Amino acid sequence: MNRHAIGQLFRIRIKRLASPANRNVLLEMVRANIKASDYHSFLGGMWSLIGTTAMLAVLYFVFSKRFGQDIQGYPLYLLAGIISVNFFITATSYLLRVLIFNRDIALNSTIPRENLMLATISINAWKLGIEMVICTLLSMAYGFYTWRSALLFFPVLLAFLALVFGVGLALSLFYCFARDVEHVWVIVSRLFLFITPVFYTVESLSPTMRTLILYLNPLTPFLKAMRAIFLHGGALAASELAHCLILGTAALSLSYFIFLRWEGAALDRT
Amino acid sequence: MSEPLVRAEAAAKHYRVLKRQRSTLRALKSLCSREKLTMDLWALRDITFSMESGEKVGIIGRNGSGKTTLLRLLAGIIEPSSGSIRVAKEPLALFKFWIGQNADLPVVDNIFLFGAVCGMKRAEIKPRIAEILDCADIRDLGFAPLHDLSLGQRQRLALSIVFQAPADFLIFDETFVHVDQAFYRQCDAFFVRLTKSPRTMVITSHDHNFLKKYCQRALWLDKGRIRRDGPAAEVLEAYDAES
Fold this sequence. Notes:
Strand content of chain B: 25-35%
Structural class of chain B: alpha/beta
Strand content of chain A: under 5%
Shape of chain A: globular
Distance between the termini of chain A: 20 Å
Structural class of chain A: mainly alpha
Number of helices of chain B: 9
Radius of gyration of chain A: 19 Å
Shape of chain B: globular
CATH class of the largest domain in chain B: Alpha Beta
Radius of gyration of chain B: 20 Å
CATH architecture of the largest domain in chain B: 3-Layer(aba) Sandwich
CATH superfamily of the largest domain in chain B: P-loop containing nucleotide triphosphate hydrolases
Order of helices and strands of chain A: HHHHHHHHHHHH
Number of domains of chain B: 2
Number of helices of chain A: 12
Number of domains of chain A: 1
Oligomer: heterodimer
Strand order of the largest sheet of chain B: 5-6-7-3-8-9
């Protein structure tokens, strides 16, 4: 498939995805997924929040003396980090299996495959939304939240969702060709908890590590941005915001290009 | 002259199938030696035909002759490997009798979900729920989880929703096998209405009486190629004579 054909396919797919009929299908799929998930009931939702709270408590008690002394609102600093990295790990792990788990639907229905991915990520995005509301309330309680925070929140969140969706899209495709991808990703994604400044600060690292973690780990700019929003009243430099937007857009565009090019071959392998 | 609803020109589709079970080591070995792990399997070759709006077309052929692949191409689920297939209107395709389901959810939620796939909004489905449940003969099971229904009940439910769908172009792949006698009457009534309507239908079936009754035209696929295309009665007769 050449670039021209992919361009044509891209236009057809976007037109179809944006059609009112497909929006209705997507809405029903999202509704059904959320309704069938734990997050639909109060107790189910609580269970999912308990994991985050437990992790917050452990990290706080272990690291607050070492890293938390100089950070005002260290619990919120931790929470913003845990939530973002957990979302990345969980959502990409779910997305990775979408094409294989939904092979029957992908090959026997006219539902766009993108819908399957979007409906899957919607469960994690719902949980992320609830956790972000908690972060916002905490930020308000600390007195950190400003109108600038509110203004910057949505572009950063959208770019973050684009990054996660892009990575998940690519992984779901690779998984069709090689089942080892799942094992590799389980290991790699866990490492993100440590190679991302969740409980430590970028400044506490050596200059070399700082550069590596800031520019090679796609999550670091988003964590910095989230913390700027929740802890520093939205004091986010334009270059930092641009970094997030470029990362999100690039990850989504590149992955979608690869997806359109290889999805047919990938489904032959499912 | 108006454009036909479907125009296929020298369309072909091949799948890459594995020569033997894949493993990471084999994949790496094939990458180094440049020996392919897969071989091409041509499901369809040189498919050229057109269909006008309102036609009812049956597709026949032995198992593995490419019927389902052709329907998937028409539905836009897969792309041809070469040639082209242009379809002017997005069809409603029913390959398995129930898709997009969430078995943990109640039947009613699944009606909304599958109804959306069939092109209906909640507001359109809501007033028809009782009718759909009645038609599927599961009136008391509306709030039961879908997994509590038998396969036959799920099939009836899916078809009862399809009967309500407003689609102008319908594709069915062996969808009506295994329906019980009582429900067959509902299917019959639906197809009688469909035959008299200006809606377009493409269907695969091994039930020749069914095809003779509801289709004016038939396409006979043999080893991925069109063997014969013409009036249903003639094509079915020729097919029967050979098999």
